[in-house]
Amino acid sequence: MISRFNNSKLFTLLKVQYSNMLEYRAEIALWAISGIIPFFMLNIWTNNNLNESINISNVMLSRYFLCAFFVRQFSVVWVVFSFEEDSLLGKVSPYLIQPLNPFFRYFAQHLAEQITRFPFAIIIAFFFFIFNPDSIWIPKLGILFLSIISTFLSFLIQFLIQSIVACLCFWTEKASSIERLIFIPTLFLSGLLAPVVSFPEYVRSWIYLTPFPYLIDFPANLLSGNATNITGGFSMQVLWILLLFPAFKKMWSAGTKKYTAMGS
């Protein structure tokens, strides 16, 4: 009964947030367009024949960066900025007295935004194929299903990382500054600017121990058909989720206790 009640609340939250997102379609379209960094990187790679150094054809490289674009579109997270703003505006207090953890609200916002963003991402992909007809391919149904799961797990990892950072708002007013520091290794090690396989082997050996390559590189390689360790990739994604979720719960518990103490 409790599970059914929680599911009902989450579904209602998702519907409400989706309705809100529909009011900002133009802004979301701009967000989608702003995520075309992988296409710029593709242009740099192909114009300088950098793909020859990692033995990847132009077609497979094009597919990789297109898939990196899609993964990025549906795994981008901004919860730390939303929570920081709500904290500064005093909106967190009424959230805390509600029976649902406030982060479920932000989680629903992200899912609703992803649903709204989907048609714009498809349009961008359509124009990409017009200019790169050799890159057109249809992933196998099983691979497509695994890619969707992998992208969602990537989203969960990033959501948990940012949620942990967001909890620092209970101690500081500028938790977003810390998130910007985390964004630097995310940008360079996630596969957004270059496939992780392009790094020297001694560097890759420790990069694969971090959560970063499982945010973009693994899902993008999986969807594009490039060689990747499917079992190892999923195992590491699940492992990082299992490590980050207790850390978030601990940070949230400590933060709310401090917040209550400050308000008493």
From TrEMBL:
<dbReference type="InterPro" id="IPR010390">
    <property type="entry name" value="ABC-2_transporter-like"/>
</dbReference>
<feature type="transmembrane region" description="Helical">
    <location>
        <begin position="223"/>
        <end position="248"/>
    </location>
</feature>
<keyword id="KW-0472">Membrane</keyword>
<keyword id="KW-1133">Transmembrane helix</keyword>
<feature type="transmembrane region" description="Helical">
    <location>
        <begin position="115"/>
        <end position="131"/>
    </location>
</feature>
<dbReference type="Pfam" id="PF06182">
    <property type="entry name" value="ABC2_membrane_6"/>
</dbReference>
<feature type="transmembrane region" description="Helical">
    <location>
        <begin position="28"/>
        <end position="46"/>
    </location>
</feature>
<feature type="transmembrane region" description="Helical">
    <location>
        <begin position="143"/>
        <end position="170"/>
    </location>
</feature>
<protein>
    <submittedName>
        <fullName>Putative multidrug efflux ABC transporter</fullName>
    </submittedName>
</protein>
<feature type="transmembrane region" description="Helical">
    <location>
        <begin position="182"/>
        <end position="203"/>
    </location>
</feature>
<feature type="transmembrane region" description="Helical">
    <location>
        <begin position="61"/>
        <end position="81"/>
    </location>
</feature>
<keyword id="KW-0812">Transmembrane</keyword>
